[in-house]
Amino acid sequence: MKITRAYRTELDPNRAQLAKLCQHAAVARWSYNWGLAKKKTALDEGLSPPSSYSLQLELNRLKRSSHAWLYESSKSVPQTSLDDLDVAFKNFLRGRRGGQRVGFPQFKSRKRTPARFRLTGVIRVFHRHLQLPRLGKVRLKEAGYVPTRDTHIMSATVSERAGRWYVSVTVEEDVAVPENNGSSVGLDVGINRLATLSDGTVVLNPRPLERSRRKLTSTQRALARKQPVAGTPPDSVFDWHEFTRGWRTFVATSCTNSRLN
């Protein structure tokens, strides 16, 4: 059976690659906002908004004249951003026709919008590295997780969270459908208890935020007493929030895998 699956893992880029990652994310954000401005202008003038293909053709003409700096990033970054903009517009128009409340696409802010972009083209996966267009071989923090054989790589989505960079590799692969020979079980998700199964098994809620709140509070107080430095994010606070989120995800994933295996 052929399925489409995504493998998400953390990147370990060097300083030069980190600068390129930020540059690609900025190009993706700029391309999205540029295309959205073009579409809004067309709507204000009573015209049909331009498609992603027509915007890409216009952007290619700009690259050869006044926007030569776009050549420094992969050509798939603005293309995928304009494709995402097209999907957002289609969802908005489809929601209006169907009576659903779908908001109009908004401009992406440099401060509030998470940095992310999607790459297509020649993407190769190695045991410890991932080769991306215009970025070269980027080291992976988890070796051997992304499959290297018998898969067709479709795209790679790179995102940043709390100062850490992640990649989600979408692949098409053949998998054998296992036979379900076990018994079914009911699941009740709660607050005091993370989950209660119908066979009497109880999964306790680890409450990661409560356990890390004391350390998070002391870190925030120490940060408040420091002199702020322009352009320097509070990495220590980000790290604790990321630790809490990762702990919560790990417990939920472990609970699910224990029942499947």
Please characterize this protein's 3D structure.
The two termini are 20 Å apart. With 261 residues, this protein is an alpha+beta fold. The chain is built from five helices and ten strands, in the order E-H-H-H-E-E-E-E-E-E-E-E-E-H-H. The radius of gyration is 22 Å and the shape is globular. The chain has two domains: 177 residues, no CATH class; 74 residues, no CATH class. The model has no long low-confidence stretch (mean pLDDT 87). 41% of the residues lie in helices and 21% in strands. The strands form three sheets. Strands 1-7-6-2 form a four-stranded antiparallel sheet. The chain has a three-stranded antiparallel sheet with strand order 3-4-5, with no helix packed on it. Helix 4 packs antiparallel against helix 5.
Briefly, what is this?
With 261 residues, the chain is of the alpha+beta class.
Per the principal axes of the C-alpha atoms, what is the gross shape?
A: globular
Q: Could you tell me the mean pLDDT?
A: 87
Strand order of the largest sheet: 1-7-6-2
Rg measurement, Å: 22 Å
- Straight-line distance between termini: 20 Å
Category by helix and strand content = alpha+beta
| Percentage of residues in DSSP E strands | 15-25%
Pattern of helices and strands: EHHHEEEEEEEEEHH
How many helices in DSSP terms?
A: 5
Low-confidence stretches: none
Fraction of helical residues: 40-55%
Main beta sheet, described?
4 strands, antiparallel
Domain count: 2
Oligomer state of the chains in this structure: single chain
**Number of DSSP-assigned strands:** 10
